[in-house]
């Protein structure tokens, strides 16, 4: 999968600062534990850390290509192009000669053959930096749905970039500054495309290209969801969805290293596992290996995912292994620190992030690539919000609709004047208006269908990126590549335009997906209710958090105190101390978020700026 980073400077020579680029590259070791390298030219340095998945012996990066003994282009690339074998044959027919079997060389040669239009040929998940020596120009490109991350930081004479903010912040020109918009983004969870929280830093938006040349930086889209008439009848639609998903999964099982599937026994992961098992069997390869998670220890819950997963694995002819995590490990300071370091930001799902990190760490000892079911809920309407008319008609993001705006709220640790001073509600409303303006319109579409198309678009472009970022950071922190077949371009473009009346034809969540995979899954999976990823209920975990909160409250120099109000914080802390074990979980989200923000501000030496 890999991590990429680099520096373009038109008024200086990065080759004179090799240690700086090497330090930036070193921050990506977790993403690429197998190898590393740096390419230098007069105005550029490209860094790369490699997780070897395709052609382990030949896919070394940064990779260069040239003509007449001169380098014409260099590439630092993270991701997988699933149809690279087909593209390689096209390029061979056009006269290109290949010295490796890697998809990296296919990407590089595709640029040399098709120029800027090469991005339209790439089918996969990727983030790449391509330096054109002839033009002295850098291209930063991110995949269509934003599965792989890519950040950039404009400077006075160029740009810094990296797979993660930590790579950019390793450069002395970049500073971890938090301004008003960063605070608004952090506190409102608006998840604005392109926003990176840190002042002066941005994300390459999904489906976009950032072009950097002397004195100029532009960002342009090369793909976006389009509204198209859906002309297939219901039976044809069901068959088409099955074939598109089957093909997507099969295409993503290609790897030169051990591959597995994440399996909860729910509809999404079971669908992926079933088609992956079929694809491997058809190629005469060993059975698919599936992993599920269970918890041991106080408050760990029944953990019945493993039983459901084992039944599904037996049904599709896959091997199954349940990985049991001790709930006490979620309190481990080292694990919590690793999660924060992987995230780069205090956003997240607390103990669920830590357990996901520990699960991936265990899987990485057995496999290098995993298939996962992200995207199915957003694409097929799996969340309760899709089926709550109050949420779908709310004048905000559906997942932010609570329906209890007038309900009393408990004391807050943060300065109560902060939301008004920074205009949180106005900021959220502006971001919602921007999101609505991005929704494609199908002429003649009825009001109800248009509303549900809008809801689907909001989830795919504003909600899904949060989950993709979480999955990428927790998996790449241990060098595990996770692929998401539900986000195959052809499948997404097709299902996005299927009318809601077909997607929810029987009133259940993900009705269309259920119908499409009915012949491949047992009834126990098809009738199982959607269950969320388990959260910890261990009283020892709560006690650890209370102790950490007490330390923070006693530390008058704690960085986060700049955002706190002493009276309100004292009241909130008193409420936490009084709470019975069963009540604490209702308060935990607020004060655990406060602890994360403080840890982040300390570890990253965050500066608050106006």
From TrEMBL:
Q: What class of enzyme is it?
A: ligase
Residue limits of the Glutamine amidotransferase type-2 domain?
2-215
**Per UniProt, what is one GO molecular function of this protein?**
asparagine synthase (glutamine-hydrolyzing) activity
Q: Which organism is it from?
A: Streptomyces chitinivorans
Print the keywords alphabetically.
Answer: Amino-acid biosynthesis, Asparagine biosynthesis, ATP-binding, Glutamine amidotransferase, Ligase, Nucleotide-binding
Similarity annotation: Belongs to the asparagine synthetase family.
Q: Which PROSITE patterns match?
A: GATASE_TYPE_2 (PS51278)
Q: Which NCBIfam families match?
A: asn_synth_AEB
Q: What is this protein called?
A: asparagine synthase (glutamine-hydrolyzing)
Q: In which pathway does it act?
A: Amino-acid biosynthesis; L-asparagine biosynthesis; L-asparagine from L-aspartate (L-Gln route): step 1/1
Q: Is Nucleotidyltransferase there in the keyword field?
A: no
Which InterPro entries does the record match to this protein? Asn_synth_AEB, Asn_synthase, ASN_synthetase/amidase, AsnB_N, GATase_2_dom, Ntn_hydrolases_N, Rossmann-like_a/b/a_fold
Q: Which reaction does it catalyse?
A: L-aspartate + L-glutamine + ATP + H2O = L-asparagine + L-glutamate + AMP + diphosphate + H(+)
